[in-house]
Design brief:
With about 425 residues, this protein is an alpha+beta fold. The protein has helices spanning about 1-20, 30, 205-210, 260-265, 285-300, 310-315, 335, and strands spanning about 35-40, 45-50, 55-60, 65, 75-80, 80-85, 90-100, 105-115, 120-125, 130, 135-140, 140-145, 155-160, 165, 170-175, 180-185, 195-205, 215, 220-225, 240-245, 250, 370-375, 380-385, 400, 410-415, 415-420. It has a four-stranded antiparallel sheet with strand order 1-3-6-5, with no helix packed on it. It starts with a helix and ends with a strand.
Length: about 425
């Protein structure tokens, strides 16, 4: 018994001593100062194509094992514990991995996403002034297209709001009073539309403003009628060609609009079938036009009249600036006039198509125009073609006429002329 007690005491003592020399329990990263540690920041980042990322690596109890040159997509330089990383300039996600020299199984990775910056556009003028119906404003777009975005593209122009139109070159034509927005757009590499816009306020012009819209035409000589250099299918009434000499005169840049008509003839008398202030006045008879002219001259103390047929054709051909076009201002009617193939059967606001060499609009198409004829028995002539007739009627030498009352119709309007200011 005494022997057993001695043995139990010895075992208990040995156990107690062994506890004194056991290692402490807990987290080895915190307690054991010899644990290898490595970290990188930032761990994720987005950068625009061509940009750089500054990476910082913290290492404990080890040196940093940097990537071998060529093992990382892109380029990098090392300074101390920092890496200046330039990823490829192609959109995507790239990895930059470093390891602990003391334990290469321990690695950390930064994920860098390369994105393309969107294009931007600046439009001038940024704050366009109030624009009167019938006037134009030239807008210019200045695109900034970063690397990685489609480079060969021109801004696409559009107008929101029913107050005008804009062509592919940024020329805005005001048609109706109101507020509208002019917008220029580009696409990014994902076909996302990037746009910038400016607001435009369109106001009604005064009668005096419109009366100033007269083009000065320098006189000269020209060949009137269907000439040899034009089409062979000349109508009989455009033959024979003849030499005409004219003095200086003035002619309206635009067909007389319904706004002007109502200013002179009264707000409640508008015979036009297609209603709109900046649409041409139409469905007007010869006699009604004469009444309009009398009242206009009384009000303005001027001497407005219809153009003579010779004046009209000379002006339609571009006067002494003429380039021999088939239509007034172009050999392509779609550029300068509204006719059966592009009008949708309706008249359109004046001045929306390209002007001719003298700055005159709609001399071909939109509505036929009353002019003063010189032929015996044909003093009431119409020229220019209209929105529901084919292109042959819109040629600068094409002519029509009537005798008697001449019933008014939606194809028929007029423009002003004057021998002096």
């Amino acid at each position: 018994m005494r022997y057993l007690k001695i043995m139990k005491f010895a075992v208990a003592a040995a156990a107690a001593l062994s506890l004194l020399f056991l290692p402490a329990c807990g987290d080895g990263n915190e307690i054991n100062d010899k644990t290898v540690r490595i970290s990188i920041s930032p761990t994720t980042k987005s950068v625009e194509a061509g940009g750089t990322v500054e990476l910082t690596v913290d290492a404990r109890n080890t040196t940093i094992k940097w990537p071998e040159p060529g093992s990382v997509e892109g380029n990098f330089t090392i300074s101390g514990n920092k890496a200046r990383y330039v990823p490829p300039s192609i959109s995507g996600t790239y990895r930059f991995t470093v390891a602990a020299e003391a334990d290469t199984s321990k690695t950390v990775t930064a994920k860098i996403t390369v994105v393309y910056a969107d294009p931007t556009i600046t439009i001038t003028p940024e704050n366009p002034p109030e624009t009167k119906i019938g006037k134009t404003v030239r807008f210019t777009a200045y695109p900034e297209i970063p690397f990685g975005q489609p480079q060969q593209q021109e801004p696409v122009w559009e107008v929101t709001g029913d107050c005008g139109t804009i062509d592919e070159n940024g020329l805005f034509s005001a048609a109706r009073a109101g507020n509208c927005t002019v917008k220029a757009s580009l696409k990014n590499y994902n076909n996302k539309i990037i746009s910038e816009s400016v607001s435009v306020k369109i106001v009604e012009p005064s009668l005096e403003d419109i009366m100033e819209d007269m083009a000065s035409v320098k006189g000269g000589s020209f060949t009137m009628g269907c000439t040899a250099g034009q089409r062979n299918d000349c109508p009989d009434n455009a033959r024979p060609e003849q030499q005409v000499t004219l003095g200086d005169f003035y002619i309206g840049k635009y067909e007389v609009t319904q706004f002007v008509w109502k200013q002179i003839m009264g707000t409640y008398y508008n015979p036009s079938r297609n209603n709109g202030n900046n649409l041409p006045a139409e469905t007007v008879s010869w006699d009604e036009v004469q009444t309009f002219l009398e009242r206009l001259n009384d009000r303005t103390d001027k001497n407005y009249r219809l153009p003579t047929e010779e004046e009209w054709e000379y002006a339609a051909r571009g006067g002494n600036l003429g380039r021999g076009y088939t239509y007034s201002g172009s050999n392509t009617l779609d550029n300068v006039g509204w006719y059966v193939d592009n009008s949708d059967g309706e008249t359109h606001p004046v001045g929306m198509k390209q002007a001719n060499e003298l700055g005159l609009y709609d001399m071909s198409g939109n509505v036929d125009e009353w002019v003063i004829g010189a032929s015996p028995g044909q003093s009431r002539i119409v020229r220019g073609g209209n929105h529901i007739y084919s292109e042959e009627f819109a040629r600068v030498f094409s002519r029509g006429g009537c005798t008697g009352i001449c019933d008014p119709n939606p194809r028929l309007g007029f423009r002003l002329a004057s021998s002096s200011r």
